[in-house]
Amino acid sequence: MTLAVGTALSHGAYVIEAWVAEDTIGPVYLAMDVASGQWVQLRVLGSRNPGALPEATARQDFYRYLEQVTALKHPVLPRYLGGFEEEGVCYQAFTNPAGTPLDQLITPTAPLSPQLSLSIIRQLVEALQALRWLGWAGLRLTPDQLWLNPQAQTIVLTGFDLTPGESEPLASPDSVAPEETELVRSLSHLLYLLLTGQQATDTKAPLTVDIRRRYPALPTSVDTALEQGSPRDRALPTIPLTDWVALLPAPETLPAEPQSAEPPSAEPQSSELRPAAQPHDRVSPATVAIASNRESGILSQASAPATAQRSYQPVLALLLTGLTATVGGLGLGFYARLQPPTSSTQERLNPNQSFPALPDWNTNTLWQPWDEAPTVRDRPDYGNAPAGAPPTDFIPEVQEPAAPAPAVAQPEFAPDPLDQAVEPWDSPVEPGVTAEPVPPVAPTPIPEPDAAPALEPVQPPLP
After folding, report:
1. What is the pLDDT of residues 417-436, one digit of tens each?
2. How far apart are CA 302 and CA 41, in angstroms?
3. Closest by Cα among 298, 294, 295, 293 to 281
4. Rounded to a whole number, what is the distance in angstroms from the first to the last CA of the chain?
5. How far is 53 from 90, CA to CA, in rounded Å?
6. Exposure string over 220-252, b if 16+ CB within 10 A, otherwise e
7. What are the CA-CA distances from residue 375 to residues 181, 224, 363, 369, 394 (Å)?
8. Please, what are the domains in the chain?
9. What is the model's pTM?
């Protein structure tokens, strides 16, 4: 199944940020723990074989087992480890480990040193001894489930998987169970991987052959531990975990530098000139998860920026080249457009220039009468005349008009009839009868207004 970015799980407790990888157990996603604000990793359990999932009670016991593992507070185990179910899917949440998975650090040309390899094995054995009373069923000691912190040289185990059966704790430390023998064989294969950089399942020879060829000075107890931990005639070893780890020498007595598989020679090989790959921490979980292209695990802190730098340099070079070409092309185009073409002679258009007249073009008027319309004339012969022939003058033939003038009768001019009711101007005027003169009537005079009475002076009062 695939979870989209932004999906909220466990009632909004976790929000998916990016897809990380597909490891040995299942798909892993980078998520944000909303409550604590820290990065965590979410793994989908049983996605490859949903039909083999245990019963609901066994799954609940597994989730309680994860809580008990968190309560141990062991440095090799994640600080937080839990599980939940949502819509019928089992999820496992654990704290984002510091460091890089071993499957990214170890290569056949750059294995780990014997001292660091034995230190990792002993740290895992201590964590397994702490988990003995809780059970070992479902543990996966594969390289993609082991995260190495190169600065502190510590390992973190994240391989906890569901099993079809229940995980029962062992009765005593001396008891040998199928889970214990499986862990011993896994530790033997892991030790071979750390020392050689190759998977134990990829070689057909005994594991001690390649180890002895690389490290001739290693104690023979290492050969004994590999032979008893991964026997060729039996499917599972019979040696207990405590006896197997007792065969291993102390890490302080082993070389601190890895040994190349190439035999020594007088001239250094290219692999010897190249420094061994050093593990690094991650920059940030989000950057590492998005830039990851591996099949299992997450890229380290330094490998992600280096990969991004190598991938961005060609892109930046292409962008810079395209920008330079664009600016140069635009500048050249504008220069060619704004600058007129130069020639050896001064050629300009004269607005008053004259053109030779046509042979039958009499006037320059645009309108001509019908009878004076231009006629169809013969085209001159523009053929190639033979060399030395005298030039011939072209004389157009006189032709009749293309069509005769239309014979249309023009109507005669007739004046408009006069209206009989209107008296003509040239008719004689009879004298009219004179009437007796009427004397003018005098106008009625306007009456004058009455004069205002005179006012008598008012005597002032006596004192």
Report:
1. 666 565 555 555 555 555 56
2. 20
3. 298
4. 133
5. 9
6. eebbebbbbbbbeeeeebebbbeebbebbeebe
7. 119, 122, 14, 13, 17
8. 8-95 (3.30.200.20), 100-260+277-297 (1.10.510.10)
9. 0.56
Angle at 370 between CA 365 and CA 375, to 5 degrees: 80
In the sheet with 38-45, reading across from the earlier edge strand, the strands are 8-9, 14-22, 27-33, 38-45, 89-95, 81-86
Query: What tokens appear for 19 in the block?
Result: 């897809």
Q: What letter does residue 283 receive in the DSSP assignment?
A: S
Compute the mean pLDDT over every residue in the chain, rounded to the nearest whole number. 76
Residues in the chain: 463
**Pair of tokens at residue 87:** 């819509």
- 463 vs 451: CA distance, rounded Å: 37
Q: Using one digit for the tens of pLDDT, what is the confidence trace for 286-304?
A: 434 434 443 334 434 444 4
Identify the band that residue 74 occupies on the pLDDT scale cut at 50, 70 and 90: very high
| Contact residues for 283 (Cβ-Cβ < 8 A; gap 6+) | 301, 302, 304, 305
* One-letter amino acid for residue 372 of the chain: E
In percent, how much of the chain has pLDDT > 90?
36
DSSP H or E stretch at residue 65: helix 56-72
Could you tell me which residues are beta bridge partners of residue 95?
A: 40
Whole-angstrom distance, CA of residue 215 vs CA of residue 207:
13
